[in-house]
Amino acid sequence: MSGKYKTPLLDELEKGPWPSFVTEIKKAAQSSSMPQMADDELGQLEKSYSTRLGYWKHGGIVGVLGYGGGVIGRYSSLPDEFPGIAHFHTVRLNQPSGFFYTAEALRMVCDIWDKYGSGLTNLHGSTGDLVLLGTTTENLEPLFAEYSSRGWDLGGSGSAMRTPSCCVGMARCEWANIDAMDICNTMTQHFQDELHRPAFPYKFKIKVSGCACDCVAAIARADLSIIGTWKDNIQIDQAEVKKYADAGMDIQAEIVDMCPTSCMSYDNGEIKINDAQCARCMHCISKMTKALKPGKEKGATILVGSKAPIVVGSLLSWVIVPFIECKPPYDELKDLTEKIIEWWDDNAKPRERIGELIEAKGMRPFLEAIGVPPQPQQVKEPRKDPFFFWAESDFKK
Amino acid sequence: MSGKYKTPLLDELEKGPWPSFVTEIKKAAQSSSMPQMADDELGQLEKSYSTRLGYWKHGGIVGVLGYGGGVIGRYSSLPDEFPGIAHFHTVRLNQPSGFFYTAEALRMVCDIWDKYGSGLTNLHGSTGDLVLLGTTTENLEPLFAEYSSRGWDLGGSGSAMRTPSCCVGMARCEWANIDAMDICNTMTQHFQDELHRPAFPYKFKIKVSGCACDCVAAIARADLSIIGTWKDNIQIDQAEVKKYADAGMDIQAEIVDMCPTSCMSYDNGEIKINDAQCARCMHCISKMTKALKPGKEKGATILVGSKAPIVVGSLLSWVIVPFIECKPPYDELKDLTEKIIEWWDDNAKPRERIGELIEAKGMRPFLEAIGVPPQPQQVKEPRKDPFFFWAESDFKK
Amino acid sequence: MSLPERKTDIGPPHYEQFLPPVIKNNYGKWKYHEVLSPGTMVHVAESGDEIYTVRVGSPRLLSTSSIREICDLAEKYCDGYLRFTTRNNIEFLVSDKSKVDPLVAELKEKKYSVGGIGPRVSNIIHTQGWVHCHSACTDASGIVKAIMDELYEYFTEKTLPNKVRIAVACCVNMCGAVHCSDIAVVAVHRKVPVVDDENVAKMCEIPTTVASCPTSAIRPNPKTKSITINEEKCMYCGNCFTVCPPIQIHNPEEDGVAIVVGGKIGSLRTSPKFSKLAIPFFYNDPPRWPKVVDAIKNILNVYAANARKHERVGEWVERVGWEEFFKLTGIEFTFQHIDDFTFMRDTLRTSAAFKF
Amino acid sequence: MSLPERKTDIGPPHYEQFLPPVIKNNYGKWKYHEVLSPGTMVHVAESGDEIYTVRVGSPRLLSTSSIREICDLAEKYCDGYLRFTTRNNIEFLVSDKSKVDPLVAELKEKKYSVGGIGPRVSNIIHTQGWVHCHSACTDASGIVKAIMDELYEYFTEKTLPNKVRIAVACCVNMCGAVHCSDIAVVAVHRKVPVVDDENVAKMCEIPTTVASCPTSAIRPNPKTKSITINEEKCMYCGNCFTVCPPIQIHNPEEDGVAIVVGGKIGSLRTSPKFSKLAIPFFYNDPPRWPKVVDAIKNILNVYAANARKHERVGEWVERVGWEEFFKLTGIEFTFQHIDDFTFMRDTLRTSAAFKF
Amino acid sequence: MPTMEFEGKQYEVDEEGYLIDWSVWTEGMAEVMAKQDGIELTEEHWEIIRFLRSYFEKYQIAPMIKILTKEIAKTMGKEKGNTKYLYELYPAGPAKQACRYAGLPKPTGCV
Amino acid sequence: MPTMEFEGKQYEVDEEGYLIDWSVWTEGMAEVMAKQDGIELTEEHWEIIRFLRSYFEKYQIAPMIKILTKEIAKTMGKEKGNTKYLYELYPAGPAKQACRYAGLPKPTGCV
Ligand code: SRM
Ligand code: SRM
Ligand code: SRM
Ligand code: SRM
Ligand code: SF4
Ligand code: SF4
Ligand code: SF4
Ligand code: SF4
Ligand code: SF4
Ligand code: SF4
Ligand code: SF4
Ligand code: SF4
Q1: CB contacts < 8 Å between A and D, how many?
Q2: CB contact under 8 A, E23 and C199
Q3: Residue from B233, B367, B387 to probe the interface with C (highest C Cβ count within 10 Å)
Q4: Which of A47, B12, B387, D127 is 20 to 30 A from F96 in CA distance terms?
Q5: Separation CA A158–CA E94 (nearest Å)
Q6: What are the pLDDT digits (tens) for B108-145?
Q7: What is the span of the domain harbouring residue F51?
């Protein structure tokens, strides 16, 4: 059913070694029960390539009953020219933590999607969802019924908790200090109502990484960033150190000299670490994984507030709790998260992310509301100007 | 005439090895023709020490005819209790560049001051003036007549050019890349009208340092900071390098490893510098002055905008012109300074320093107005957000 | 056909059911890993068990047909177990060592892009572009394809000083992690939006629209019941367009992309960093944006030639200085590079020490 | 007595007439210098000529009597030539080497403080305080005297890793260079100013007063023709008081001083730095502010014990981290330390790597 | 552009049935819209529609959900001041469905 | 508090002769003040006093010198639009002396 449009510009993008999304759009038309969708998607995209302009209307407000989110309404602004994509909504399926699948499960997702949608997907969306790209309003309810009955639920959208996501963590990584997948799954389940029924001032994202490598980029794009760490000493296997040296690693230059705190030394074939000075940055460990290991007293650092640049420039998340234990059922973490969200929800203006709110109100009211004391770990450096507030309570001291 | 008041608190500050300002106040009463001034100053200060409160009114508006600045009016808020300091104005005498004096000249200053003032001075004020502390309104005109007839003029105050100042520079420093004292003196003479007759939106300060050591703190407290530098290679005397090593200097640790650009090496007793990578920070030169010297192609970096924290936090000066030649009669420098001041004067609100104005308007209009192109040396790093302006002229390219 | 029973608030399927047995057995007990080739690695557990990972590139935009083909391969070599990475690559999870080489062979034969592990270019994080987003100021997928074709050998073979994370954002909403990428492309507008007063009055929340502007360029216009934009203040962010559709920001003549560099996410060695502006503008040039691709390749090559081992792009630039970056790459420095917004103070040079 | 002829716009006396001949002859041709003792150094010219400098501390606030005594010494040993430093020390410029030791001997005998050259504590930059300024929130001279008495041997004898520049500002106008000092004291208010409505209405420019507030805490009050201050927003900077005297900021009960550390001016090794808040408050405690003095001594000692040679206070702290600074000095970390103003973004920790 | 018929006149709506011009709304339109969705508007429904409408007329913006729930709690009792209750009345979501019935501009942005 | 007598009434001034309450000013006071300084107020002087006064009444702030000089240039000719001219008329400085005659609040701050 493909080949409805001539697409000379897009066809250029089928050349070259990297897999082509154009080919994928063409392929989608082959398996979907609604081939006209992918076809018209291709046609409209070709038009965009020649005019350098997109042809989508502003996001629509469609959804499934009982949920306020999970579907992004989308309508072509050229429905007469491309009727197959007059409706072209995306459905966000909440991915399993860590993006693990079986072939069987994925096939099921595909089968339902071919029945109700364009046959196009994103594996995965930037937030983490399994994104199904292109369906119509009338197909939403049946599609949801089929997916949900088979164990799949929708992810977040709108002014709501967004689908949490995480790195592969303990499932396949020797550095995971926390069970990122379990935490991610637990938080997702804990906040189901907040995820499906938008009632926040704006979006709220949670991401969980097992260590400071931060393989899910939590520190840059999550309102709540949970990053694993440890408290005690790095575990050293000197025999393995020797093997790295024997294999030609320049331990002094590559490891010791690159340690940001200069807390390491390398003498007589042995690495020594002054752990009190170690910042747990993961450099040495990651480059010598057989010889060095995180400590045993594990937990997480909680950071808050990162987001994209709108309105006044991007934010990276800020350290709020330097160390928190993270053991099932994660009550302390849930509790803290709830307090964080509550303060934000109570104080934010519409479309104000928590990072922006903290910036507007200052750290103090935020920390006081969530019951966290001021700590030097929360700042890179203390304030530079002499303009600081005093609360009545400070005078009693 | 001293001893009018009991000053048990201040007397405490006559103890200890560091010279005591209390003793100075007491001494002033001995030589001044108006001993009651220093006496009452002491009395009021003792009162401040016991009540923890100052007793001065807001700055007054006195001066000498034809000048708008140079005198800071000051009145005690307790004139009945301390009549000697009912008037207690300060006179700012413009110091000679580099703070050089002869005993003869200083004695002349003292003699006139004892005649018309309290006998108290500050050598020097923070801006650089020779500050005469405490006189009355009626004494201002005769005092000015005497000083000016003997070659002394007033310094700046109010919304005006302020008294420029500089480091000792070529007079006694082997690192001076520019003649800081000559530049300071030339600029002071060039801007006499602007200095004496306030017509600016706010104060404007110029400070000149001969090198990046910045011994006059120009980068932190001058609207226009002129700092000497060079363009070519650091001059190395390897024989002297050897002597430092022989004398026990750990050249690797103290010099090479502390070079911020890592552009030095030390091998076989010789220092090598990759001058293209040198930032001319002065560390190595200052610690090995017999072995290393600035290059020969000398000039200055022009920085703009530093100031104290009011209103929204301190500013350090920003690099505007990375390198400018500085030879008498300094036409290029004067010209640039005039353009800088003109743009500021045309655009600033009252009480807006030039750094604040640049912050409000952006670098572009400022640089365009003074005819300086954008250069990477002006920034520590390029902008981080994607929000940048385009002028019509940019589209023509 | 009657629909199956609808459920709500069940959340995602539990990940456990998708874990290969060797992972379930060694969960949280991995000892180390080794990168065997640009596309394969092995993780070894304390028990001695091993899991092999074979990674292949993905356009992320996948048809159900392609997913089924991938599933076939997973069943043939991995008992059906596979996963996706946080950068949208596909990972085959091979429990049986002997199947690794045959899998890789079949993948290569079928033209899959095996690679992306270790110090190289991995998949490009990107978002919807003209494929699906009304906000798009460029197409993401096309730029990504053009770049990855050109940098292909940095994915499949060549080694770099460290990982190089590339991203593309199709507008300044930056749905990827462009703001913290080693190298990234971000689409930007350059013209003040055009206001359709009649529809603004009918369709928009005026206070919301006014509040949306980062530079306070928007004022309500009581006469038209619409708004007016102060052209001097507008820096074309499009946030007003996001909240009020009749404010039109798209301008196909003058829209295009900027290139930013030097961001990073991990806290290794140096703190996470925002990307900084390297090149303020290229016109949209579909289908292959050749100048954009060249510019990125140039930056990558200069990095590869100059950085020390383990240095990320941003770490290298910060070591040598941005003035040196511009010199080495030959990129022109413009007024756009000088921050005049939130971080202005933080980015202007306040030191007499710098390189010429 | 008739007055001499009045002149205007003549500018300061030309420095040349005050230069010793050896300086005039070798102007711009100095080769090197050597620090001979904490209070003496020699500069050697290319010609081989030498100028010896003997530095003594000064309270800056000098009586004419004291200046004359200094002049006497200058005439006795230096042909009358002397200068002052940018930090208000006195420098005797000795052209005749043989006069150096006798000068030093006489100075010491007369209890002058010979020192301040090289890696030690030099004179404290400070300003008027209660001695002369209406804005003063503490006395500067008294604190300086108390500190210098305590740190005396760091001026006259002891060596530190590098120079330590101390400053005192008697209010946040910061007429010194407190904002870029190794260690500094800055006086701060802690209470919202009290508004005398009647006089504000009579004596102040309302728009100027409103505009003076950094946090927009001030609004005009049309009823009283005065202004009102939003107590929530005011952070006691006193700028409103500066432009409008009937707004009273002084509060002897709750005024006091803060201690800031880690600033520097020179561009050597690292960029110039602002000082950062170390201790948010001590009550004014005249005449000797003992807690302030102790706190400074503690910081100085911890620096001396921990910094590397040539490291300035700020360089040391940045190397070990501020969390370590608080640990080593035992200073309590409070809400006041966390920036909530201009530099907030720049100062919050955005990294998973830090010390506990 | 699709339209909606009401009392014999045609009104422009978008593809999701939102009135293009919020100012032409009258109460009867809500009934028509609800009927299309198979919803019978009770007093509880109206409570919300009226609040939305009056809030919008006062502030020119739709209230945040938390303001809506607070208001409901005030007028209808605390146990009803939550999203669950709102979704019972408006299964497609209060922001989406109730705003549409109330003739408010279609919510934009954050999806 | 010192006072100044004008038309038989006492007005509060500060130690430098500035009216404490700017609102009680009338033109005649300027004459009195000028006389004390030994200045004869010419039309040129009045030009400045009136401009200062009207500017203040409009904006509640004293104009910046550059605004004053621009205004003078406009009304009196370009060659007079400079500080030199102002200092000829008001040797103690326009900001200080003319503002005082015009009854404006005493300039504060920056000295
Ligand atoms: C689908 C997705 C991009 C993708 O191709 O992967 C996406 C797509 C859109 N994002 Fe996003 N965002 C997506 C992840 C992100 C991320 C990344 C993340 O979540 O980790 C960010 C940056 C992090 C953050 O939240 O700040 C992101 C920051 C934004 C913003 C800016 C928000 C801000 O506070 O600055 C907007 C604008 C808005 O909310 O109005 C936005 C808005 C949008 C909208 C809804 C456009 C709009 O204005 O209505 C896009 C819909 C596209 C479409 O037609 O399908 N999207 N968006 C991602 C969600 C898929 C998923 O659920 O997995
Ligand atoms: C005398 C002196 C302090 C001293 O003891 O040395 C001084 C004293 C005053 N300064 Fe200053 N400043 C003095 C150098 C400085 C410096 C340092 C410098 O010039 O290098 C600064 C910081 C640099 C800067 O300009 O930002 C400085 C920043 C201020 C400020 C804040 C200005 C700002 O833009 O933030 C004010 C407030 C104002 O202008 O209203 C101020 C205001 C004042 C006033 C006039 C108080 C006032 O609000 O009216 C003080 C008068 C004190 C008195 O009664 O004598 N003074 N003032 C210094 C001038 C002596 C001289 O001429 O040599
Ligand atoms: C599979 C994945 C996690 C997942 O849950 O999907 C993953 C897996 C691993 N990461 Fe990662 N990282 C993954 C995304 C990331 C990200 C996030 C991103 O790119 O958006 C980062 C942060 C990047 C940044 O800083 O900008 C990331 C920064 C690291 C680092 C730090 C590199 C550095 O020195 O700066 C390491 C350590 C290393 O490479 O030595 C690391 C190391 C690893 C190790 C070696 C961990 C382990 O022991 O298993 C894994 C294989 C490495 C490899 O691919 O070279 N991983 N890693 C992600 C693969 C993405 C991909 O397809 O390429
Ligand atoms: C006399 C004076 C200049 C003047 O015109 O008065 C001066 C003179 C010299 N300075 Fe300085 N500096 C003087 C104020 C400064 C200042 C300004 C200040 O403190 O307010 C600075 C910037 C301080 C800062 O960075 O915060 C300053 C930073 C330096 C440095 C950089 C030190 C460093 O490593 O950070 C050097 C180089 C050195 O010490 O090795 C230096 C070196 C020198 C040399 C060695 C230059 C030379 O070859 O003659 C002079 C004697 C050094 C000494 O005193 O130890 N001078 N010097 C000033 C003496 C002030 C005093 O009485 O103590
Ligand atoms: S973030 Fe750490 S624990 Fe998680 S996958 Fe990356 S390296 Fe492993
Ligand atoms: S984890 Fe980082 S800080 Fe700690 S020893 Fe290793 S390299 Fe150094
Ligand atoms: S700034 Fe440089 S040239 Fe001037 S005195 Fe200091 S070291 Fe010498
Ligand atoms: S001047 Fe500074 S940057 Fe240059 S070589 Fe010396 S230490 Fe290095
Ligand atoms: S970055 Fe912009 S254009 Fe791209 S998907 Fe996100 S909102 Fe849409
Ligand atoms: S595009 Fe951005 S800056 Fe311009 S008016 Fe709209 S919101 Fe304001
Ligand atoms: S710092 Fe403040 S109190 Fe001290 S002299 Fe300057 S203005 Fe006056
Ligand atoms: S003290 Fe400062 S912050 Fe407080 S009202 Fe006055 S100007 Fe504003």
Answers
A1: 164
A2: no
A3: B387
A4: D127
A5: 13
A6: 999 999 999 999 999 999 999 999 999 999 999 999 99
A7: 3-101
